[in-house]
């Protein structure tokens, strides 16, 4: 009967799902890259401002922590 067509349909569906997954992953990567913040003291890259604050409190307690706004670009 229509076994061949069913198989083809399943293959197309799998292909679409894979494309969806790949797109989601690349978007996530772009978002993560966009959130990187550099420590002004030692130039280490942090994923976000909260981590930078934690890093500065731990590693550079004498340095003034810049405001989150100063990293917006
Ligand atoms: Zn640092």
TrEMBL record:
Residues covered by region (Disordered): 1-30
PROSITE patterns: ZINC_FINGER_C2H2_1
Domain of life: Eukaryota
Domain spans labelled C2H2-type: 39-60
Pfam families (alphabetical): SERF-like_N
A cellular-component GO term for this protein: nucleus
Amino acid composition bias (Basic and acidic residues), ranges on this chain: 1-20
PANTHER family per UniProt: GEO09665P1-RELATED, ZINC FINGER PROTEIN 706
Keyword hit for Protein biosynthesis: no
Keyword Nucleus: yes
Location in or out of the cell: Cytoplasm; Nucleus
Record keywords: Cytoplasm, Nucleus
Gene3D superfamilies linked: At2g23090-like
UniProt protein name: C2H2-type domain-containing protein
Main location, first listed in the record: cytoplasm
């Amino acid at each position: 009967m229509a076994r061949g067509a069913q198989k083809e349909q399943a293959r197309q569906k799998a292909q679409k799902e894979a494309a969806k997954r790949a797109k989601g992953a690349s978007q996530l990567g772009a978002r993560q890259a966009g959130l990187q913040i550099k420590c002004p003291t030692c130039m280490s890259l942090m994923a976000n401002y909260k981590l930078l604050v934690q890093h500065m409190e731990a590693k550079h307690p004498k340095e003034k922590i810049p405001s989150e706004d100063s990293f917006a670009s």
